Amino acid sequence: MKVYNKTILSNGITVITEDISFIESFSLGFFINVGSIDETKSTSGISHFIEHMMFKGTKTRSPRRIAEEIESLGGYLNAFTSKEHTCYYGRGLTVHLEKTFRVLSDMIQNSVFNEKEIEKEANVIVDELYDIEDSPEEIIFDHFEENIFHGNSIAYPIIGTEKNIQSFKRETFLDYIDKNYINSNIVIVNSGNVAHDKIVSFAEKYFNSSFKKKGKKRKKISLKDAKDLRIKKDIQQSHLIIGRPTYGIKDIRRTKISLLSHILGEGSSSRLFQTVREKNGIAYQINSFYNVFSDISAFGVYLSTNEKSIDKAVSLINKEFDKLKNKKISDRELKKAKEYLKGQIIMGLESTTNRMIRIANSELYFGKIRTLEETISEIEEVTSEDILNISNDVLNEKLMSQIIISS
Question: For 113, phi and psi rounded to 5 degrees?
Fold first, then answer.
């Protein structure tokens, strides 16, 4: 019996399962291939708002009943919206999987979008927006991606704008769903102790079999020059990002950049942590990041420090860039980075929810299930020469921009 099974139903839905026979639970996800990248300036934030509204009642279930039906069986429901996907998922005991499947499919197909619930939830999401704006270590990443991706829909923040959030009407939601929540955009993934045929039968039973139209293709990203930005806020610390757009998840160089990011600034043994925090004591938070999307990514370094130390921190960061561009890393340092990356991946897969998300991402990005062995093999194949070359490619200060939030 195969560990992974995949079926594309006649109604256009893709079903993928992973059989883990030694557990008595499941993680079930309904992934919709739509996110903030599919929005316009006037609809920015609608994907995230819809995610909230799916829990606010269907034709046969009240918001309370949606929660109680699953929680009364020891399970739970949740959801998230990213720039490229929206996911509704549940976790529970295997014996209760059909109930979870039924509730999730009802939410996705039959949510009513009651006007009073829309008004209430708009206030909740605005509060969520304020929480983000009150956290400079969060909002700086939104500003950074708005800056480096400007002119493209991927620049829009997932949560949207207060103006949009307060202006969305029921008809706007229903029109957006009609265009994007279509069967060919749906991938259902289950990780756990459930037979593949059973999930397939549920998908055929609980989803509309006549809804077959295809979604639109996304526009190609066209980058423009990004500028340095300084944003004033009444805060104690200064927050900085130095970074740029670079290769996305579909580019084979992704593994090299991921390793470069680990070497540069992920973990307390990384170069930047040791140099900026441990040796110079000028930043409590410092890390590199590689936020990957389908055809592009956001790569950079984030730190928070006092205003007087910003210039010194930038100088130290640039020196570490130069070191990586001018000298190959040692075999020992490369091995350490590889083991760290492999460890993070493998330990993450001890959660069936993480396994379910990994399978879905593999399908949505690559159209196939990439095995753990393939991923590990890609990591092992990277050489110190590869890291030197990718450093010279990616760590190009001329292509980087800075954003600072300070008082």
Answer: 55, 60
Domains along the chain with CATH numbers: 4-206 (3.30.830.10), 229-406 (3.30.830.10)
Is 138 an active-site residue? no
CB atoms within 10 A of CB 239: 25
User: Cα–Cα distance between 115 and 128 in angstroms, integer?
Assistant: 20
pTM listed for this prediction: 0.94
Q: Which residues of 91-105 are buried (b: 16+ CB within 10 A; e: fewer)?
A: bbbeebbbbbbebbb
Residue 237 one-letter amino acid: Q
Backbone angles phi, psi at 370, to 5 degrees: -85, 125
Which residues are CB-neighbours of 91 under 8 A, at least 6 positions away?
Answer: 25, 26, 27, 28, 75, 76, 352, 353
DSSP symbol at 58: B
From 18, 24, 39, 51, active-site residue: 51
For residue 327, count CB atoms less than 10 angstroms from its CB and return exposed for 0-12, middle for 13-18, buried for 19 or more. exposed
Please give the average per-residue pLDDT across 253-261, as a whole number. Answer: 97
pLDDT band at 2 (very low <50, low <70, confident <90, very high): low
Q: For residue 91, which of 358, 354, 360, 361 has the smallest C-alpha distance?
A: 354
- Overall average pLDDT of the 377-388 stretch: 98
Structure tokens at 192: 């756990």
